[in-house]
């Protein structure tokens, strides 16, 4: 088992390793393993905290493995080796006091610690173990079937564990990310049922660990998972429903990403409501109310997940909710978290139903927060549009589209459209002409507005026209602008059309990013659908790079196999095959470099635009003497943080755009906290597939290689050197 433990650690299977350590610990209670050898192994675990030039998260894991095993074996070890255990505890306490905790704000669900503190996981576990020690290692929730056979097991031959040396740190080591413990309930929330263990009670740790383990084991089968959760042993001694709901929301809101896909938690809660219709829905409603009341301090990413879960959940229960209880949002600033949340929930519900149904389910007083009717806005469709430039061409295009005109016929109609940006007729053909794009896109999308399929067919049929009109960067941006004007009231249609345009290469990812940060979208900048589009765009870019890289690696492996066969068997025809493969590899290499350049440009655009709009906001507030900390500013800062946490594998830093004024530190601190968090993990960034690092100089921050463990001393990372390029 020690060999298996080492193999698990070398293979970065740290969850499996934790369970192995706990199993070995429980074998001490069965008198199978001698207590002194277990103490020696724990001493080696804690000795990792003395290692130099290793990431903090490595040290964190070994301390966690030690502390999390003590509920099972702490009493036995302290009875037999109290002096040695005191020494290990002293070393552990010393480490916990000196370790960096700058990652905590990035991983907290709420910025406020009231009513429940959001503690870092090692600090919380240490407090729980300290209380357990004070209570003389008495706990009531760990199943110990071997106690029935203690009189027999105590006479068994005990074995000493072989000496265990933690595997050394390597560049391939991928350690678990740090966490913040999610707390939503305490004993006051269920005054009539069993008392909920306190946050620093080891019983709380054991119960939550077991529930997390059940979800991890059965998450692919929601019915089985729900049945296992409600059948938790000892459920009569605890308010089980409160624990289950808290654990599920803890995983759903875990930052930077939940352990499983978001929809799993929705379906699991639905199954739980079906299994216990008389109790769990009430607890879930209570939790929803608590989350709503704390929206002001909730992380924006978690608010997004809350919106997606709640709307999906309502769609499975006929959209029934006591909306009048949330009428306080009607008197607040529309940009405040509560009215924005209600608006986004209703919009998501409309995607899962239809507009009139949503209008009918909410009280008339909520009409201001209801989504607009998702109809197409065609600017050339009424009589007042006769004087608009391009109106006559729009009529001709409409007739041509209905007559199933070819691309050449469409080009012929658009040829006579004047270019408002061009003073002289220099016959530049189909260079960027905003009026051509506007007339063509408006008319085509209007005629294809019946369904998603109609719109997709229109894009496919006139793909050549789109590519010609949107040949330049300005053209791509204008196509997106016009599409947004047409479907302004239908966010879902906007999202799917942008997705389709990227897939068909009508627009590129950088154009989408520029459009999202453009002035035309400033009013909708904080809306959820905008950020869904941006994250989808980044994912597509990353997957595209990975796909080409995989093709390149396969071609290289194939060439290597051919070389090996040629060395074993003289085959003249292999020279011709090698030549074809080498040409293919060269082409793929060029594609990889081009894709990586596009990906770099996408990140460049995103971070530059973030810096620009945040700086403009700060300057405007300084000039007007108004408060910087507006709801818009909080949303924007946390969106920047979200991009860092979920999609960034590489940052470039220079000193072009940042001044050293104190007002800019809040923006810089996002970057500081992000880098510190990831530098402490020393693991390749695994939340979003991205291309391997393309290191441009020794001054770049390469998050997929060796991370600096002391950021304050990092040679490139100063507050005057913080501009993403």
TrEMBL record:
GO cellular component: nuclear cap binding complex; nucleus
Keywords: mRNA capping, mRNA processing, mRNA splicing, Nucleus, RNA-mediated gene silencing
Gene Ontology molecular function: mRNA binding; RNA cap binding
Region annotated Disordered, chain positions: 559-578
Gene3D superfamilies in alphabetical order: 1.25.40.180
Compartment list: Nucleus
GO biological process: 7-methylguanosine mRNA capping; mRNA export from nucleus; nuclear-transcribed mRNA catabolic process, nonsense-mediated decay; regulation of mRNA processing; regulatory ncRNA-mediated gene silencing; RNA splicing
Residue ranges of every copy of the MIF4G domain listed in the record: 5-133
Any Pfam family hit: MIF4G_like_2
Domain MIF4G-like type residues, every copy: 219-363, 378-646
Superkingdom of source: Eukaryota
Similarity field: Belongs to the NCBP1 family.
Protein name as catalogued: Nuclear cap-binding protein subunit 1 isoform X5
Source organism: Trichechus manatus latirostris (Florida manatee)
């Amino acid at each position: 088992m020690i060999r298996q433990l080492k193999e698990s650690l070398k293979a970065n299977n740290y969850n499996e390793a934790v369970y192995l350590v706990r199993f070995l610990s429980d074998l001490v209670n069965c008198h199978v393993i001698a207590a002194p050898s277990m103490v020696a192994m724990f001493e080696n675990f804690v000795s990792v905290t003395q290692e130099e030039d290793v990431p903090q998260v490595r040290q964190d894991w070994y301390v966690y493995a030690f502390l999390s095993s003590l509920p099972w074996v702490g009493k036995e070890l302290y009875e037999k080796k109290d002096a040695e255990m005191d020494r290990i505890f002293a070393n552990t306490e010393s480490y916990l006091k000196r370790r960096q905790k700058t990652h905590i704000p990035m991983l907290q669900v709420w910025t406020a610690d009231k009513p429940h503190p959001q503690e870092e996981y090692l600090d919380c576990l240490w407090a729980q173990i300290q209380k357990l020690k004070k209570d003389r290692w008495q706990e009531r929730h760990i199943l110990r079937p071997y106690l029935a056979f203690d009189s027999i097991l105590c006479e068994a031959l005990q074995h000493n564990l072989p000496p265990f040396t933690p595997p050394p740190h390597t560049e391939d080591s991928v350690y678990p990310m740090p966490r913040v413990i999610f707390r939503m309930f305490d004993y006051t929330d269920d005054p009539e049922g069993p008392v909920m263990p306190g946050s620093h009670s080891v019983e709380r740790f054991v119960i939550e660990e077991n529930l997390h383990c059940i979800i991890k084991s059965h998450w692919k089968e929601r019915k089985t998972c729900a049945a296992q959760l409600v059948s938790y042993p000892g459920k009569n001694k605890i308010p089980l429903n409160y624990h289950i709901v808290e654990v599920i929301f803890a995983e759903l809101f875990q930052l930077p990403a939940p352990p499983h896909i978001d929809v799993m938690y929705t379906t699991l809660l639905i199954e739980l409501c079906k299994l216990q219709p008389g109790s769990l829905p009430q607890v879930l409603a209570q939790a929803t109310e608590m989350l709503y009341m704390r929206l002001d301090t909730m992380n924006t990413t978690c608010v997004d997940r809350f919106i997606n879960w709640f709307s999906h959940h309502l769609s499975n229960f006929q959209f029934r909710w006591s909306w009048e209880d949330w009428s306080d949002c009607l008197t607040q600033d529309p940009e405040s978290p509560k009215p924005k949340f209600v608006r986004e929930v209703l919009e998501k519900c409309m995607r899962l139903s239809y507009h009139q149904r949503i209008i009918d389910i909410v009280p008339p007083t909520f009409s201001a927060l209801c989504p607009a009717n998702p109809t197409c806005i065609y600017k050339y469709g009424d009589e007042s549009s006769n004087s608009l430039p391009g109106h006559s061409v729009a009529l001709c295009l409409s007739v041509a589209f209905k007559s199933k005109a070819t691309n050449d016929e469409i080009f012929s109609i658009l040829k006579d459209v004047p270019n408002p940006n061009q003073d002289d007729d220099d016959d530049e053909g189909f260079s960027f002409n905003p009026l051509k794009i506007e007339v063509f896109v408006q008319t085509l999308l209007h005629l294809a507005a019946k369904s998603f399929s109609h719109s997709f067919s229109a894009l496919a049929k006139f793909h050549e026209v789109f590519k010609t009109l949107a040949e330049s960067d300005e053209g791509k941006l204008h196509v997106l602008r016009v599409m947004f004007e047409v479907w302004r009231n239908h966010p879902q249609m906007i999202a799917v059309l942008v997705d389709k345009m990227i897939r068909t290469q009508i627009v590129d990812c950088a154009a989408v990013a520029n459009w999202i940060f453009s002035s035309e979208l400033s009013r909708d900048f904080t809306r959820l659908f905008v950020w869904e589009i941006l994250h989808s765009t980044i994912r597509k870019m990353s997957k595209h790079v990975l796909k080409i890289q995989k093709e390149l690696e396969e071609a290289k492996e194939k060439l290597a196999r051919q070389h090996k066969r040629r060395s074993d068997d003289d085959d003249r025809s292999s020279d011709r095959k090698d030549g074809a493969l080498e040409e293919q590899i060269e082409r793929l290499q060029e594609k990889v470099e081009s894709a990586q350049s596009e990906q770099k440009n996408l990140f460049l655009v995103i971070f530059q635009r973030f810096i620009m709009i945040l700086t403009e906001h700060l300057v405007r507030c300084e000039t007007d003497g108004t408060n910087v900390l507006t709801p818009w500013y909080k949303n924007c800062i946390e969106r920047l943080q979200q991009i860092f946490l979920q999609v960034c594998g590489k940052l470039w830093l220079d000193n072009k755009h940042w001044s050293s004024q104190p007002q800019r530190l809040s923006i810089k601190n996002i970057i500081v906290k992000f880098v510190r968090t990831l530098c402490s993990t020393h693991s390749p960034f695994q939340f979003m597939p991205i291309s391997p690092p393309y290191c441009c100089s020794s001054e770049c921050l390469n998050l997929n290689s060796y991370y600096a463990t002391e950021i304050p001393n990092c040679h490139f990372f100063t507050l005057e050197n913080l501009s993403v390029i």
